[in-house]
Structures are given as C-alpha cells and as structure tokens.
Design brief:
The structure is a single chain. The protein is an alpha/beta fold. It is 39% helix and 19% strand. A 7-stranded parallel β-sheet has the order 3-2-1-4-9-5-7, sandwiched between helices. A two-stranded parallel ribbon has the order 6-8. The longest helix has 18 residues, at 134-151. The two termini are 24 Å apart.
C-alpha cells in the first residue's frame, strides 16, 4: 500500500466476543498499516466492552456503538460515512467470524490499484467453501445466480445490501473485479444468516430489476469487500 494512502477495515459485530480480539490481532499482525473500525450493535455477550478495551490499548482500533441490532447494511453505511468523514482512501469490509481470512488483505490492496470495487469470491475459479451443508450451498449459489441474471451483474458474489452496492458501482461504469478466496464457516458462535435475510435479498433483486432504479452517486473512496 502507498505509504500516503490510508485504509480502514470495517468490522460489524454482534455477539462476537470470542472472535473480535483474535481477528483484530491478526489484521494488525499483517503489517499493512490498516486502521480498524468495530461497529457493535449493543452485543449482549460483552463484545462492545472487548472492542473498547482494544481501542484503549491499540491506536489502530476505533469503536462505534449503536443502541441495538440495526442490521448489517446500516452498519456498512455508518462505517462508510465514518471513513469518508476522516479522509480514508480505501475501505475494506470483513465479517468478524474468520470466514474471511486476513491472509487475503494484501491481495485486496494490490488489486484496488486497477479497480474501484474488489471482491473476494468463493464462486470464481480457485475459490471455495469449507464446512457448509448442502442446503446452504444451494441457497447461496442459487441466490447469486438469480441476482446475476436479474440485474445483469458481472460478479458472482453478494446478497442483500451487498448486491445493491455492487449493482450501483457497476451501473456507474466503474471497474469491479473479483479474485478467489476460500470461505470458511465461522470458528465459534452462531451464524447471523437467516431466512429473513434471504427473503430481503430476493425482494431487493426483484424490485430493482423491475424498476431499473438509477444508481446512487457513491462517494469516491474505493471499496473492497470480502462478501459472505
């Protein structure tokens, strides 16, 4: 990464007390000079308190507390605004459960030099999924195929708000690129994926395909995403 460029990793958290600290330590250990913003939705397991402790000890770590579980999409938006207000050049998004491994961070920072949105995808050649059941693979793969077909997406990854992000970036004529990652099911804790999230994604894709909404004018900082 250019020494003058500033990059922020956004980590939305909800009941990730066992994952947050080791993930942050691994990100810092990468030596890439990344700042980290943990966005906690009033976790009941003490995740917010762990984030505050880390922020006191580590200058790279910042914390945003929200009053309750407000959803992944709104956490991303809040994180984007926070980063833009502070002049970050690059914004990276990761899940907080190690399903997106920090080992891929250097690849993101290399590829963003030739793109506006970089996606780590399990559905391109060389990518894969570890420890998922057949039903979840079918749901995820089918949802991705549905979104690509309905919206004309050139990517193979994303759901819900994240489909919307990629769709808007593509419609603006910006460069979107993917590279393969191996997606590992979470080490500890419970998955946040639900039937409601899948339905929301289906409704969004269908409504957008039927209305062909004009793209939102996103601010300029480049976005990187490990999509789930």
């Amino acid at each position: 990464m250019n020494e003058e460029a500033r990059a922020l990793v956004i980590l939305p958290t909800y009941n990730e007390v066992d994952n947050l600290e080791p993930l942050i330590q691994d990100i810092i250990a990468s030596g890439l000079g990344l700042d980290i913003l943990a966005i906690d939705d009033n976790s009941s397991d003490g995740t917010g308190e762990v984030a505050d402790r880390l922020a006191m000890d580590l200058p790279e770590v910042h914390v945003m507390h929200r009053p309750g579980k407000m959803g992944l999409g709104t956490a991303y938006v809040a994180g984007f605004k926070w980063a833009i207000e502070r002049g970050y050049d690059y914004i990276l998004q990761m899940d907080c459960d190690f399903s997106h491994h920090p080992q891929y961070l250097p690849i993101f920072l290399r590829k963003i030099k030739q793109a506006d949105l970089v996606i780590g995808s399990r559905y391109v050649p060389g990518g894969g999924i570890v420890n998922w059941g057949v039903l979840r693979k079918l749901l995820s793969g089918g949802g991705n195929a549905f979104a690509r077909t309905m919206l004309g997406l050139r990517i193979r990854e994303g759901y819900g708000f994240l489909i919307g992000l990629a769709y808007q970036v593509q419609r603006l004529g910006n460069v979107v690129t993917e590279f393969p990652i191996v997606f590992e099911d979470r080490r500890v804790g419970q998955s946040k994926m639900s039937f409601r999230i899948a339905v929301e994604a289906f409704v969004y894709v269908t409504r957008t395909a039927l209305t062909q909404q004009w793209p939102i004018r996103w601010p300029k900082p480049k976005l990187h995403r490990f999509l789930p």
